[in-house]
């Protein structure tokens, strides 16, 4: 059963400018593993995923960007790991599995998230 759906889009150029303008932003938005060797369009898609997770959970107050992490499996397929408040809310809703799709093209990055129970 689908318990929540979230989608988000990010303008890559605007996102890149924000990262340059605010040097500490990367560390506030992304785990060390998420940052490793990632081009800005990939980071923008991961940021969209974090926002989409919040939407799939009903946008509860107090979620932090580091509580949702995009990791890749052995085949390179993106997956979500949640912790902290995001994990608590997901547990309360009965989320058992996450589905994630990332894409970027023509200066836009997007993420689509489904929370399944």
From TrEMBL:
Residues 4-97 form the 4'-phosphopantetheinyl transferase domain. The keyword Transferase applies. Gene3D superfamilies: 4'-phosphopantetheinyl transferase domain. Mg(2+) binds at residues 8, 51. The keyword Signal does not apply. It comes from the Bacteria. It catalyses: apo-[ACP] + CoA = holo-[ACP] + adenosine 3',5'-bisphosphate + H(+). It is found in: Cytoplasm. Keywords: Cytoplasm, Fatty acid biosynthesis, Fatty acid metabolism, Lipid biosynthesis, Lipid metabolism, Magnesium, Metal-binding, Transferase. It is an enzyme of class 2 (transferase). GO terms for molecular function: holo-[acyl-carrier-protein] synthase activity; magnesium ion binding. GO terms for biological process: fatty acid biosynthetic process. GO terms for cellular component: cytoplasm. Its cofactor is Mg(2+). Its EC number is 2.7.8.7. Belongs to the P-Pant transferase superfamily. AcpS family. Transfers the 4'-phosphopantetheine moiety from coenzyme A to a Ser of acyl-carrier-protein. This is Holo-[acyl-carrier-protein] synthase.
